[in-house]
Write a structure and sequence with these properties.
With about 260 residues, the chain is mostly helical.
């Protein structure tokens, strides 16, 4: 049986021709490699090829020559790897981003899914070292298109925190101040809650908490319930009155009931 020791040359209709897969045959890695210029049009010779031994038969001497040829081919492949664009070329540095573009991206990211006040966004831009004049310009533009609306933010905050957490006007105003809302907008927002609504919410809070205080001394119940209302921003007079009425409805005698101001 005759062993074929040569691959097809540069014929267009053979597997070693121009239609060979990339990296297999006609690649720069094999031009001028260990196997000579003829290697450029075919894949690396196999270990049993006698081609590298001057075309003689396939004895042990030919095998050794082929082995050196294969090592040379490996060396060529290694050289090809080192010349690959992805390994030798460094990525071009990105140009510095325009400060205004950075500011817009930061604001849009922070506003995604969560309304924020202008002060909150300004603080975030300052923290990221956006120049003040750029920050002011971007935030003003966001206000013009309605992406920043402190009045709407304050209204929504009062609605959510009063009905969700039972906070009174005083606590709501304090929270809005910490978020940088203008005092005039705060007054307008908390003004949506009148005294009657605030007292009704206080009664609901006490009713829900009342059961957990049963078994305690009367004075302790008063202090615990009134203290809960105080932490939510209810005035002291309103808190004591609401708690006294709730205890009386349970049959507690509130005459001479002592309480400490809070």
């Amino acid at each position: 049986m005759t062993r074929r020791t040569d691959w097809p040359g540069s014929s267009d209709d053979g597997p070693g021709g121009h239609d060979a897969p990339a990296g297999y045959g006609r690649t720069p890695a094999y031009d001028g490699g260990a196997g000579g210029a003829g290697e450029a049009d075919g894949p690396p010779r196999l270990p049993w090829s006698s081609r590298g031994a001057g075309g003689s038969g396939g004895g042990s001497e030919g095998f050794g020559e082929s082995g050196r040829g294969r090592r040379g081919a490996r060396g060529s492949r290694s050289s090809r790897g080192s010349d690959a664009p992805g390994e030798t070329r460094e990525a071009a540095p990105k140009p510095p981003q325009d400060p205004a573009e950075r500011a817009r991206n930061i604001c849009l990211r922070l506003l995604t899914g969560t309304p924020r006040t202008r002060k909150q966004l300004a603080d975030a831009l300052h923290k990221r070292e956006i120049p003040q004049e750029v920050s002011d310009e971007v935030l003003s533009r966001f206000e013009e298109v309605g992406l920043i609306d402190d009045a709407a933010f304050a209204d929504a905050w009062v609605e959510s925190r009063h009905h969700g957490k039972g906070l009174a006007r005083r606590a709501l105003a304090r929270e809005l101040r910490t978020k940088g809302v203008d005092p005039a907008l705060i007054d307008e927002a908390v003004g949506q809650l009148d005294s009657d609504q605030e007292e009704a919410t206080a009664r609901e809070l006490v009713t829900r908490k009342l059961r957990s205080t049963r078994g305690l001394e009367r004075d302790k119940r008063l202090r615990r319930l009134a203290g809960m209302l105080a932490r939510k921003g209810y005035p002291e007079g309103l808190a004591i009155r609401v708690v006294r009425q709730a205890l009386e409805e349970e049959g507690e005698d509130t005459d001479g009931l002592d309480y400490e101001p809070f």
